[in-house]
Write a structure and sequence with these properties.
372 residues; alpha+beta; 7-stranded antiparallel beta sheet
Length: 372
């Protein structure tokens, strides 16, 4: 079918989606409780959107459309509180984190929805290995050409979001030595990676999407697992590289960081994107996944390498006027303190394991962080 029309949306409006883990109260392994939790949540007015995900040990929740950090955070907290209350009735807990520390992918069950069953048939064991948990952020764009321009300009900042949100150091019972092991599962899918470098929507629709659709490989934008993708039905771009943070406060901070970056790019303060910017993209993304805030980033234009922490801190300082205009300075200050004074959620989880030598304690800490 033709690519959907790019619908109008309020520029710089934002929405957040969080994929969350359902874990047993006692064994702390993933619990097959998605259907029961969805039924409980739908018996009353849930303060957001809630739906199943690929396997039955995970759910996805989504906020409405927001312009400010304050209202976004307020809704995220309401959703969290409702989920924690309903989950307790089922003897399960919820938590963030990009991966579960010790679950075994072979024990997972695909959720009984036609799309997930179809994806399981197509991707085989990769579908069960996709029991990983991410935060997606949507930002409203004034028009489709701006959406593509901002999408590609953001490529230079993708490592920032990976490092800031990284919360998946453990997988299948082992320390992966990655801060974000989750993204390794995403990269396995054939339509992952980055969007093709096209800056005009008409060309994207005619020269790329229509030709891809003609191959029979894709039918809609949902079939692309790109790091950032346009969502024409919402009039947004969608950032997809973030692990689900341990707490909703961090999720809101990451969302407004993206909002401020988009404002900076739309204002013309950043250089126009060129395809050569992607020469360092894969290396920078790997550095952020592997080392988090302690990784290196190579600037796409100057080719200078500097610590990712320093690049994020300098960007936060550049964004200060935009944060003031968007009423998100407090959230940006919290990110700045985290970057300069400590570590991300992966650092926190590793510290718990170093102290306890127990992965159940790691899950306990993630559960406590989400409930707070």
């Amino acid at each position: 079918m033709p690519l959907e029309t790019f619908h109008a949306s309020s520029a710089l409006s934002m929405g957040v989606e969080l994929e969350l883990q359902l874990v047993g109260e006692h064994d702390r392994d993933l619990a097959s409780a998605a259907a029961d939790l969805l039924e409980l949540a739908q018996r009353q007015t849930f303060p957001g959107d809630i739906k199943p995900e690929m396997t039955d040990s995970m759910i996805e929740v989504a906020t409405g459309i927001h312009d400010s950090h304050a209202t976004l955070l307020a809704q995220l907290r309401l959703m969290r509180d409702a989920l924690v209350k309903d989950a307790a009735r089922l003897n399960v807990s919820l938590c963030g984190g990009g991966t579960h520390p010790f679950q075994q992918w072979s024990e997972r069950r695909i959720f009984s929805a036609p799309r997930f069953q179809q994806l399981s048939g197509l991707y085989g064991y990769l579908a069960k290995q996709f029991t990983v948990f991410g935060q997606h952020v949507h930002i409203g764009m004034p028009d489709p050409d701006s959406a593509l321009r901002v999408l590609h300009a953001l490529g230079r900042y993708v490592p920032h979001f990976i490092a800031l949100s990284a919360s998946s150091p453990f997988s299948q019972g082992s320390d992966t030595l990655f801060d974000s092991a989750r993204l390794n599962s995403v990269f396995a899918f054939p339509l992952s990676g980055r969007a093709p470098f096209v800056l005009e929507w008409s060309r994207f629709e005619r020269d790329y999407f229509a030709r891809m659709e003609d191959t029979g490989i894709v039918r809609s934008m949902k079939d692309f697992y790109w790091d950032i993708r346009p969502k024409p039905e919402y009039g947004t771009i969608e950032l997809r590289v973030c692990d689900t943070p341990l707490g909703v406060d961090r999720a809101a901070q990451i969302a407004v960081y993206l909002q401020a970056l988009c404002r900076l790019i739309l204002s013309g303060e950043d250089p126009e994107p060129v395809e050569d910017d992607y020469l360092v993209y894969t290396y920078n993304r790997f550095q952020a996944c592997r080392f988090g805030l302690d990784g290196l980033i190579v600037h796409p234009r100057s080719h200078a390498a500097l610590p990712l922490r320093d690049d994020i801190a300098a960007t936060l300082e550049r964004l200060a006027p935009h944060a003031d205009a968007l009423r998100s300075s407090d959230a940006m200050d919290a990110l700045h303190r985290m970057v300069r004074g400590g570590g991300n959620d992966a650092t926190r989880l590793r510290a718990v394991h170093a102290r306890t030598r127990n992965l159940l304690a790691v899950v306990d800490d993630a559960v406590a962080a989400f409930a707070q």
